[in-house]
Specification:
253 residues, alpha+beta, three-stranded antiparallel beta sheet, two-stranded antiparallel ribbon, 28% helix
Length: 253
């Protein structure tokens, strides 16, 4: 990286101009093959990035042959991190989804893999760009075919992808937790405000044992206290509110 591209004086004379040393890493033929691999993740059966070309994202531009696109998903151990990097001839973008700590993670691949969590971020970004009439002409493009490459030769060597099926999650609708996260958060916030302590409340007759004459009550065991009442000791049961459980708790470990 560098800071200054060019310096000119008041007369327009170039005083300084940065010159980059360019080194060829892949020749055009090799680069085309690498790009074909990334494109296959989107176009071929079994590809992990196939949902990118659904109507929800960039399907309308992909299927009318006006855009080439490829991508790569990634998921770390225990589904703690999910990645997606998408590439087109004019744009490259990446998305990461994860918690602040690795102990926070999704409970299954069906919920936490890169194609379900990170890919939609890139897909929505590309849809926004290509829906803009001023931006679409700049970024709708296809890769040029280098000299000496016949795309039909690549198609002849295609083989079915052998992929291990991810175990299905117990949730009937894996997208349900995401749809309800905001609703659950609002409910929890309202509940916290309504359950603020407002002093001791009187116990019901079921919570307080009746004294028998003037005989002191026997020890009530753990979890109780004794309340003095005209010389008689009456056990007073302590109560604890059950912790609130959110639907979203089922999504994470």
């Amino acid at each position: 990286p560098y800071t200054i591209e060019k310096i000119e004086d008041s007369d327009g004379k170039v005083v300084y101009e940065h010159h980059r040393d360019v080194h060829t890493v892949l020749n055009p033929q090799e680069a085309y093959y690498m790009q074909a691999l990334l494109n296959a993740s989107v176009s071929d059966a079994g590809g992990t990035s196939q949902s990118l070309v659904s109507p929800s994202y960039i399907g309308q531009w992909y299927w009318n042959k006006s855009l080439d696109v490829g991508g790569k998903t990634g998921t770390s151990n225990s589904h703690a991190d999910a990645w997606f990097v998408g590439v087109t001839p004019k744009l490259v973008g990446g998305a990461w989804v994860g918690g602040e700590y690795r102990q926070i993670h999704f409970r299954s691949g069906a919920l936490g893999q890169g194609s379900r969590t990170a890919l939609p971020i890139f897909g929505l970004f590309m849809r926004k760009v290509l829906s803009d009439r001023t931006l679409a002409p700049k970024y709708l493009a296809k890769y040029p075919v280098p000299e000496g490459i016949n795309p039909a030769d690549i198609a002849q060597h295609d083989e079915p992808v052998q992929r291990h099926e991810e175990p299905k999650d117990s949730l009937v609708d894996p997208d349900a937790p995401y749809k309800n996260l905001e609703e659950n958060a609002n409910q929890e916030s309202n509940s916290d405000r309504s359950t603020e302590p407002s002093g001791d409340k009187p116990h019901s007759s079921q919570d307080v044992a009746e004294p028998s004459g003037n005989t002191p009550q026997q020890s009530a065991g753990p979890g109780t206290t004794h309340q003095e009442n005209q010389g008689n000791k009456t056990p007073k049961q302590k109560t604890k509110a059950a912790p609130k459980r959110n639907k979203s708790d089922d999504v994470f470990n």
